[in-house]
Automatic annotation (TrEMBL):
It comes from the Bacteria. Residues 126-145 are annotated as: Disordered. Residues 126-144 have a biased composition (Polar residues). It comes from Lentzea xinjiangensis. The keyword Transmembrane applies. This is Anti-sigma-M factor RsmA. The chain crosses the membrane at residues 102-122. Keywords: Membrane, Transmembrane, Transmembrane helix.
Length: 246
């Protein structure tokens, strides 16, 4: 079967097909032949423009504070886990356990919110703003104030979607071109910059997690090894999965 035979006929085209074209998940040879036809059709072009506008709106949304009563319950649970016991559990470890319990549900929640044009960033630190008179504590070194990358297990990637969506930090990959080369090495097609990207620690290994669009209400989570990824290097892709509503 040739590439031409695989290209859906139209117009009209379904919204799902146009969304897949916009997300860059169609085979390259199909997308190359389909895009000029879709862009030449006024109705289909309006859908592409609406998808572009939706992504821009999502990126520009400010964080939404967590309700105080929810934050209080989480803080109380974290404090209980951090209370000295055998073995002693640090507050950071307690937060990690909380994220693990959320699991894929956190990723599905964000994906569902994105489908309705809303992103909820649930972070205890955002529920209170410091007063004008408050003075930030003095730091003695950058090592004290630097936030360590998210520490995740392979089955916890969905719980990190909310945090990574807020970031455009290429970390050791440094540039969009380097990211594009790493995605190419894994046979992953994507157009434009990722919805979110951030360094993470995957089971003790330094890595970079990128979130790519994967159709309406879905995200493609790709974890790359910055030391080995690149064109023609599929071993540099550590994880590749899709989360959200199907």
């Amino acid at each position: 079967m040739t590439g031409m035979e695989r290209v859906p006929m139209g117009p009209p085209w379904s919204v799902d097909l146009i969304a897949d074209l916009h997300a860059g998940v169609l085979p390259p040879e199909v997308a190359a032949q389909l895009r000029p036809r879709v862009e030449a059709d006024a109705e289909a072009r309006e859908i592409l423009q609406a998808l572009d506008a939706t992504l821009e709106d999502l990126r520009s949304l400010p964080p939404i504070p967590m309700p105080d009563h929810v934050a209080a319950r989480i803080d109380a649970a974290l404090a209980a886990e951090a209370r000295p016991a055998a073995p002693v559990v640090s507050l950071a470890e307690a937060r990690k356990r909380r994220n693990r319990r959320l699991g894929l549900g956190g990723g599905v929640l964000v994906a569902a919110a994105a489908a309705f044009g809303i992103v909820m960033v649930m972070s205890p630190e955002t529920r209170q703003q410091p007063s004008n008179n408050a003075q930030p504590p003095a730091s003695t070194s950058s090592a004290v104030t630097a936030e360590p990358p998210l520490a995740l297990q392979r089955d916890e990637l969905g719980s990190a979607v909310g945090e990574v969506l807020k970031a455009q930090n290429y970390g050791p990959l440094e540039t969009p071109d380097r990211l594009a080369g790493c995605l190419q090495g894994g046979g992953i097609t994507s157009s434009g910059k990722p919805l979110g990207i951030s360094p993470i620690n995957l089971e003790g290994k330094n890595a970079v997690m990128a979130i790519l669009p994967a159709g309406l209400g879905q995200f493609r989570l790709v974890v790359l090894d910055p030391e080995t990824c690149g064109p023609d290097k599929p071993e540099g892709v550590l994880e590749d999965e899709t989360v959200g509503q199907r």
